[in-house]
Amino acid sequence: MTELLSLPHTPEIWQQTLNWQPNEQQWQQFQHLYDCVLEGNKRFNLTRITDPLDFLEKHLWDSLAGLMLTDTLKRDEAYKVMDIGTGAGFPGLPTAIVCPEWTVTLLDSTRKKIDFLVTVLQALALRNGKTLLGRSEVMGRDRRNREKFDLALIRAVGEASVCAEYSLPLLKLGGLAILYRGHWTEEDTEKFLPSLAELGGTLEQIKTIETPWSQGIRNFIYLRKIQPTPSSYPRATGIPTQKPL
Ligand code: SAM
To answer: Fewer CB within 10 Å: N-end or C-end of the chain?
Structure first.
């Protein structure tokens, strides 16, 4: 058994930075999720972020910052959400905890990550979470998934144009993708815009924020799907990363 570690409870920091704070039940679920990840890490080698404060900031706070910093999302609507390349469940699991009306699909191409996520959904009794094993390039062409999602989340999966090629085909027209990035410059935007337009998307907003505990820089890139993505996208497995748009 791992010795249980407690997450630092600092509601005022959540409130100051995100204008939101977890309620008691959500807070208990965060702690339960942390326990599951520490336990799962022994078998699955899931994440190097295990220190309580690091976990709080880099997994929980960061996952939710992407949602809380835009006012275009409605937490009480029945959105269908896809977390692409979710790994140990970020940002998808904190999203499912905080937005019980949303249905969150956790997609990853690695079986051991999906096996772990199945156990977490059960342990946390998260009925609005689902897992999906596979590649986003395949899912984006599958008619059960293409154009079926209101929101796509994608963190630490690849460069921006790759993330756009993975996420935009999955979105309904009018849907939103949130790219979780570290540093982001105006040159990055200039370079990104042509591929985004090619995929049917537009850049709606960029939010830059300093993380509250370690003062890292985070950028959340909000993409709106304004036109259908051409049927030639996503390209075959591996091509988006080998030949980014
Ligand atoms: N999003 C998580 C996070 O930020 O903690 C995990 C990031 S991890 C660096 C990238 C994950 O994306 C891995 O679990 C990998 O298996 C998955 N992945 C990479 N490319 C993928 C693809 N094309 N389709 C589905 N999963 C993919």
So the answer is: N
